[in-house]
Write a structure and sequence with these properties.
Elements lengths: L22 H28 L5 H27 L6 H6 L1 E5 L7 H16 L3 H4 L10 H6 L1 E5 L5 H55 L6 H10 L3 H17 L4 E10 L9 E12 L7 E13 L5 E16 L3
Antiparallel strand pairs: 1-2, 3-4, 4-5, 5-6
Helix pairs in contact: 1-2, 1-7, 2-4, 7-8, 8-9
Length: about 325
Amino acid sequence: MTAVLNTSEVLPDQSAEVPLASWPARAGALAVDILPGLGVLSVNVLLALTAPFGSAARWVFTAVAAVVFVLMVANRVVMPASTVRGWTLGRALFGIEVRCADGSRPGLGRLALRELAHLLDTFGLFIGWLWPLWDRRRRTFADMLASTQVYRVSRPSPEMRRIVGAALAGTAAAAVLVVAVGYAWVYWPAQALDSARQQVAAQGPRMVEQMLSFRADSMDEDFARARELTTEGYRDQLVKQQESVREAGPTNNEYWAVNSAVLTDPPVTENRVSMLLAMQGQRGTNAEDMKFITATVQVEFEKSEDGQWRVGNLTVLKKPMMNTAGQ
């Protein structure tokens, strides 16, 4: 937001009567100086606060915000103190300049004080910004505190307008770039993780219920359906478990999840989510030998190439406890 201004110009004759700047010109200059940089600064601060703690993204967005703040200070304080006209980008565009009450050019310290004093203009319900509309010398509260006034001077050259236009265009492009990078770096991965978490939270319990449940009169079909819910890496282990059940003889086995929670350790990724499930069920074909079951399992879900979630592993944390009906 800084630019090299033409320093070959000289100040107008201080003895001549110089008209005071109008309120619209002052408002326009302030908008050019503050709003573009403030927009980029706000976006970076927001991205830094929402980025994962300690991540590279948080540090990058914080650094960008700091650089933008320094450029804004340079435009509003350093550049006016170091150029003949005392212009900022906005003042150059609207042809106004800040002077001391005696007509001299303010220095770095007075300009810094004036910028800080603008907080009084803002905190007082913006009354200070509107004060020039009825003040005889068209001063804000900051002008009164810093003993400054704003005057109208000659319009800037076409070259200066091009410089200001290029600076504003660069600021707009930077804002768009920051938003795009922020979305691609922070929000898109976060949304992908949230989506994975929500999908497994909704589908996972039902998948485990279907994988562990079967009936004596449809055991083959139920086992085949269960194998379709697993990854290739876990399928062989499931097949061995099914063969052991088949050798024990046909029976009904029904499970349902009574509670479930997506785990954060191991961390959730776009293609892998862990879930803890509290299961209840019943086993047996007759009411007399029916057994009620409770178990706690940890299940690893993996997303396959077709975008569907599959059971990648199932670990029994609490061995099934069986109670015979009537006990």
